[in-house]
Amino acid sequence: MNAYQPQPAEQRFILNQVLQAAQQFAALPAYSDMDEDLLTQVTDEAAKFVGEVVAPLNRDGDEVGAQWKAGTVTMPPGFRDAYQAFWQAGWPSLACATEDGGQGLPAVLEAMLYENLSAANHGWTMAPGLLHGAYECIKHHASPALKARYLEKVATGEWLATMCLTEPHAGSDLGLVRTKAVPLPDGRYALSGTKIFISGGEHDLTDNIVHLVLARLPDSPPGPKGLSLFLVPKFYEDGARSAVVCERIEEKMGLHGSPTCVMRFDEAAAWIVGEPGKGLNAMFIMMNAARLHVGLQGIGLLDAAWQKANAYAQERRQMRAPGSASRAGEADPIHQHPAMRRVLDTQRAWIDAGRVVAYRTALELDTLKQHPDAARRDAAQRWCSLVTPVLKSAWTDQAFTGASACLQVFGGHGYVREWGIEQVVRDARVAMIYEGTNEIQAIDLLVRKVLPDGANALQTLLAELAAELGDSPDAERTRQAMAGFAQFTTGQLLPATQAAGASPELPYGLADDYLRALALLLMAWAWSRVAATPQATSPRWSTAQTGFWRWVWPEFQTRMAIMGASLDAA
Known about the structure:
Elements: H1 8-18, H2 21-26, H3 36-54, H4 58-63, E1 67-69, E2 72-74, H5 79-88, H6 107-120, H7 122-125, H8 131-141, H9 144-156, E3 160-164, E4 180-183, E5 189-199, E6 209-216, E7 227-233, E8 244-249, E9 260-273, H10 279-315, H11 338-370, H12 374-409, H13 421-429, H14 438-450, H15 456-468, H16 473-498, H17 506-531, H18 539-552, H19 554-569
Parallel strand pairs: 3-6
Antiparallel strand pairs: 1-2, 4-5, 5-9, 6-7, 7-9, 8-9
Helix pairs in contact: 1-3, 1-11, 3-6, 6-10, 6-11, 8-9, 8-10, 10-11, 10-12, 10-13, 11-12, 11-17, 11-18, 12-13, 12-14, 12-17, 14-17, 15-16, 16-17, 17-18, 17-19
């Protein structure tokens, strides 16, 4: 099947018409001169680069894959040339500060770019996917000397970066990390240990790689508070190679174009980043930025699956569709069959609503950094804190299940490699796992963010969203659902978790359903916003909107019923 093709006009419709980004940019001094002409130029050129340069490499990335030999990784054909063109054209530096070699553009443009990249070639996109997080980490925590040496190289993408957290015995529980950092006489540290699942730990895309590594200083306390963050490059300034070795790359279900490396640090000389024992504080800057981009991966991969399935359904003819005007004995495109329309319209509803939520999140990140009013920055922080785990979890879940549903549209043809849909299913699966598993995202939302403050932040967020809606029946339905969700949280869930003798496991068992219900509320808000946009009258938007209310929204009541039954049983 044809390679993925970005649709920048549809993305801009959501950004400009639904979210009215220009009004938000006007309140941010750094972006007050942003206009639709500039947005159009950037998004069109980004779409052109993705469609013409990156997307055609996807098949070879999967079939040839990254190759390891004696500690060296060779990337699939065309990957290095594409990446060199990518950074030299300035794409990695879109949202980086101009004083660091960046272009100083809003984060939402970077978000739209990476959505398209993930859809077009997820394996290739894994290489630059951590750049912005590494940039923010170095910018806010590194010493002036380290910034002078590494910040611009990472900001521009001339050098790629890794995030070295996981060890064979320490996955989500980073407090178990054993990698050691021993002080050296010259002020550096000798890193010793093994890290696994390191995306892009070794490759030939760039001339250097900057590793950011969690390790433990001598006599540091056990657990996460004893971790510090260190920087060690593949090559030092004098050209000497560091004692960092790629022992092998993993043979994976998908993402064959991205080398997932086992990295061994043999007393590798490194510099500390930030304060001793504050490594997780610095690393979380990378992780939080990554979680937004993983949510965007889910949206992009689901769109890639939908594009393939929709094109196939328009051409494939099988039987007469119910109510068809075709003559007896004729076959209709399977797109006309209700079972296939349900699959396609459901995924389209998730994609479009996901873009509204993700672009709004990126706009809130810009607001958090740039807005002069403290109250508005607080509101932006509230959005990012509550919505980011929902975006990461719900849309990566849907990317996998929705891509599988799109494979079903192909019937037996979907199960063979020729059509490319099975690759999307395989590539999408990992997004539910990395950057904090989806179960951890749900726990983070309910146990760490909603319950501790008595759901005050959640209630405030829902009230703000309800106030944005108009007077349509769908808007009123959404407002009522938001009120019911808030009432369930404060009137049933909170009391149940605080009651004498309440099981401490209770909120953990409900967390997945709670996050999914909130995701559906955000979708209802998004579609109510789309419906209120005068330009959203074409069949393109009305079909997806109808699909949401008919096929997706009923799940909200199902999730609420499951949680209610769980509370009753407890």
